[in-house]
Write a structure and sequence with these properties.
It is a single chain. The chain is α+β, with helices and mostly antiparallel strands. The chain has a single domain, classed as HIT family, subunit A, CATH 3.30.428. It is built from two helices and five strands; from the N terminus they run H-E-E-E-H-E-E. Strands 1-2-3-5-4 form a five-stranded antiparallel β-sheet, covered by helices on one side. Strand 2 and strand 3 form a beta hairpin. The longest helix is centred in the middle third of the chain and has 16 residues. Bound molecules: adenosine monophosphate and zinc ion.
Length: 113
């Protein structure tokens, strides 16, 4: 399957790695929307939140654990941050490998929709 983030995880396409473990990879967004803009992705390919099931949902909890750890390391845990996952066309999802945006380092726009 041709997937941009699978290629990044494999190292076939370069990325600026922020964190990696057995199940998760995190790297800087190529088009940052905030001073801190990191993408946290499961290594196992899931297309979007629509693919999350009882069997694989453990990785989502782990992604939030990693988000909290990275927010602390990147100095935004106290100032505040947002974790977002866009699902499907109406949400503007452009890469169909499940990912969570970790955004912070400035006062974020409060508009949710
Ligand atoms: P979304 O619109 O929620 O699907 O988010 C996809 C994100 O992937 C966007 O914020 C893009 O800037 C980012 N992106 C696309 N290609 C790359 C890449 N090669 N390296 C890092 N981030 C990327
Ligand atoms: Zn993928």
């Amino acid at each position: 399957m041709d997937c941009l983030f699978c290629s990044i995880i494999k190292g076939d396409i370069p990325s600026t790695k922020v964190y990696e473990d057995e199940t998760v990879y995190a790297f800087k967004d190529i088009n940052p929307m905030a001073p801190v803009h990191v993408l946290i992705v499961p290594k196992k390919h899931l297309s979007s939140i629509n693919d999350v099931t009882q069997e694989n949902s453990g990785v989502i909890a782990h992604i939030y654990e990693v988000a909290a750890k990275l927010a602390k390391e990147l100095g935004i845990s106290e100032s505040g941050y947002r974790v977002v996952s866009n699902c499907g066309a109406d949400a503007g999802q452009t890469v169909f490998h499940l990912h969570f945006h970790l955004l912070g380092g400035k006062k974020l726009n409060v508009t949710m929709c």
